[in-house]
Amino acid sequence: MQDLLFATNNQHKLREIQAILGNEFHVLSLKDVTLDVEIPETQETIEGNAVQKARFIHGLTGMNCFADDTGLEIDALDGRPGVYSARYAGEGCSFDDNIDKVLQELSGIENRKACFRCVICLILDGVEHLFEGRVDGVIIPERQGSDGFGYDPVFLPNGFSQTFAEMPAYLKNGISHRGRAAEGLRKLMLSKK
Ligand code: IMP
Fold first, then answer.
1. In terms of Cα–Cα distance, which of 89, 57, 87, 84 is closest to 73?
2. φ, ψ for residue 34 (rounded to 5)?
3. Alpha helices of 75-168 — where are they, by DSSP H?
4. Is the per-residue pLDDT at 131 higher than 80?
5. What distance lies between CA 53 and its chain's CA centroid?
């Protein structure tokens, strides 16, 4: 089984990506390689952040590794929170704070269209590869469900009656932004085997 280091401290993401990549690959977390670092994320695009995070971890370890970055882009908010999705309600804010802010900004607004966009940057044998995944949906006015993380309780993907926080993991992973980007990564890794 091939080891691949994932530049994240987020255990939810780690579980999702391991489930998507399956048995052919062993996804290692930063904790698994005893790396206790704050990963810089200072770029103005999600592509820029994915590349920055992957290069940072590759620079420290020299290992084959990848990083992802995601933005929730809401039509009526001109694409916000976008690249600022993690800290939309301010530095050190919680997932709930971010959801509250989005719901408040959308209150009384009819157009609830939104999408998650995810970019994964893989550095394999020193070469960078980018993969993108996107899922479209709407922001519902009240939280539904308690699984997942981030904005999952208020994101209803198009064509489904459950939010990401209500869906079983396999269903979310099959249609999600990260799932789709990771599928590109998986295919490339398999083609190099
Ligand atoms: P990150 O930069 O990839 O960590 O994503 C930024 C923020 O987007 C996270 O802090 C979450 O609030 C949100 N986010 C990323 N992926 C998801 C997801 O799969 N579901 C819900 N929210 C997400």
1. 84
2. 45, 45
3. 95-106
4. yes
5. 13
Residue 52 confidence (pLDDT) above 90: yes
Beta bridge partners of 25: 2
DSSP state of 29: P
Of ligand 1's listed atoms, the one at least distance from the Cα of 118 is: 3
**What is the pTM assigned to this prediction?**
0.94
Q: State the distance from the centre of ligand 1 to the C-alpha of 118, rounded, in angstroms.
A: 9
Angle of helix 177-192 versus helix 11-21 axis, rounded to 10: 50
**Which helix (H) or strand (E) segment is 55 a member of?**
helix 46-61
* Average pLDDT score over the chain: 95
Q: Is residue 151 lining ligand 1, measured as CB closer than 6 Å?
A: yes
At 60, phi and psi to the nearest 5?
-80, -30
Distance CA 87, CA 101 (A): 11
Distance CA 182, CA 8 (A): 14
- Catalytic site includes residue 75: no
Domains of the chain: 2-191 (3.90.950.10)
Binding site membership of 86 for ligand 1 (Cβ less than 6 Å): yes
What is the gyration radius of the CA atoms in the chain, in angstroms? 16
Query: Any idea how long the chain is?
Result: 193
3-state helix, strand, coil in the chain (%, to 5): 40, 25, 35
